[in-house]
């Protein structure tokens, strides 16, 4: 982690970009993205209700599984991501699923308004591994605001920052909860393709406390409608986790629960 100061913020982005460019094709072929991990989960549908007829934008859409899932429930979706490889894979997946109500664009999240030509949407949907790649929550919140139409909604379902603190091997604390300004890691392979041999393996990621994320969204003018924390997650992070095949990984009875994910639903006033 100590080498972070040797790189500029632009280089952090380039390292992360190279990491994702290499992972996107691996993820297109992975079981996690093709089966249980694919698309919105029940807790997200509970939060969102019907999306039929809504225009939805998904910043950091990766290979498109969530945007496709929203389109399958009747939304018209635009997904964008800074990985051209991910945006190349997304329409292939959409076609395989028989979904046409999706548009795919390459763009950095911090340049989101430009990426979508200044359009605004009924719903801005993002998360599940999105904010940890971003250094600046205030700028991010400003972009989320600019993508949402007045009277629209912003939704984030995200891994709990507490889990970012913990070792992958056990659940002891590896990192501080409060912002460090980013940490540089060697991260070979991928959470969705564990045995993959990869060459771009250095990432820079950021723990964003719940209060930091929420305050940034409140500061731009969003109004909080709903916040939830969950004792489960959408991929198998620790060996002891259990699933019933629904793409959700839970605590076994003998392990005391802590929050693994959270969701936030905000309104943008008219
Ligand atoms: C774990 S995925 C989250 C998306 C979705 N939940 C999923 O799992 O398919 C993270 C995505 O963020 C994208 N990303 C990271 N930094 C970005 C940035 N600055 N601008 C746009 N996309 C970015 C990556 O390319 C990757 O596709």
Provide a descriptive summary of the structure in words:
- The chain is of the alpha/beta class and 270 residues long.
- The protein has helices at 9-28, 31-34, 42-48, 65-72, 84-97, 112-115, 137-147, 161-164, 210-220, and strands at residues 55-59, 76-81, 102-106, 121-127, 148-159, 183-186, 202-205, 223-230, 232-233, 249-250, 261-267.
- The strands form three sheets. A seven-stranded mixed β-sheet has the order 3-2-1-4-5-11-8, with helices on both faces.
- The termini are far apart.
- S-adenosylmethionine (SAM) is lined by residues 16, 20, 60, 62, 65-66, 81-83, 86, 108-109, 128-130, 133.
Key phrases:
single chain, 270 residues, alpha/beta, Rossmann fold, seven-stranded mixed sheet, two-stranded antiparallel ribbon, 9 helices, 11 strands, globular, binds S-adenosylmethionine
Describe the structure concisely:
With 270 residues, the protein is an alpha/beta fold.
- CATH H level, superfamily name: Vaccinia Virus protein VP39
Fraction of residues in H or I helices: 25-40%
- Radius of gyration over all CA atoms, rounded: 18 Å
Question: What is the number of domains?
Answer: 1
Sequence of secondary-structure elements: HHHEHEHEHEHEHEEHEEEE
Largest sheet: 7 strands, mixed
Report strand order across the widest sheet. 3-2-1-4-5-11-8
Strand residue content: 15-25%
> According to CATH, what is the class?
Alpha Beta
């Amino acid at each position: 982690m100590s080498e972070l100061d040797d790189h500029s913020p632009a280089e952090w982005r380039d390292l992360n970009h190279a990491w994702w460019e290499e992972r996107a094709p691996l993820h297109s072929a992975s079981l996690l993205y093709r089966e249980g991990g694919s698309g919105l989960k029940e807790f997200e549908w509970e939060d969102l209700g019907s999306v039929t007829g809504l225009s939805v934008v998904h910043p950091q859409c990766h290979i498109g599984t969530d945007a496709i899932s929203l389109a399958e429930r009747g939304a018209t979706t635009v997904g964008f991501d800074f990985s051209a490889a991910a945006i190349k894979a997304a329409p292939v997946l959409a076609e395989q699923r028989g979904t046409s109500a999706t548009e795919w664009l390459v763009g950095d999240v911090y340049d989101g308004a430009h990426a979508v030509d200044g359009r605004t949407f009924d719903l801005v949907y993002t998360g599940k591994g999105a904010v940890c790649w971003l250094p600046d929550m205030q700028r991010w919140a400003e972009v989320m605001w600019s993508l949402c139409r007045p009277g629209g909604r912003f939704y984030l379902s995200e891994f709990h920052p507490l889990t970012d603190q913990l070792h992958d091997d056990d659940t002891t604390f590896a990192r501080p909860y409060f912002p460090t300004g980013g940490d540089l890691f060697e991260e070979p392979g991928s959470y969705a393709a564990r045995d993959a041999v990869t060459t771009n393996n250095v990432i820079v990621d950021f723990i964003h406390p719940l209060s930091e994320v929420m305050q940034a969204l409140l500061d731009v003018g969003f109004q909080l409608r709903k916040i939830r924390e969950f004792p489960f997650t959408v991929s198998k992070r620790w060996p002891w986790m259990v699933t019933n095949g629904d793409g959700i990984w839970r605590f076994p009875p003998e392990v005391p629960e802590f929050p693994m994910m959270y969701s936030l639903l905000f309104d943008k006033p008219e």
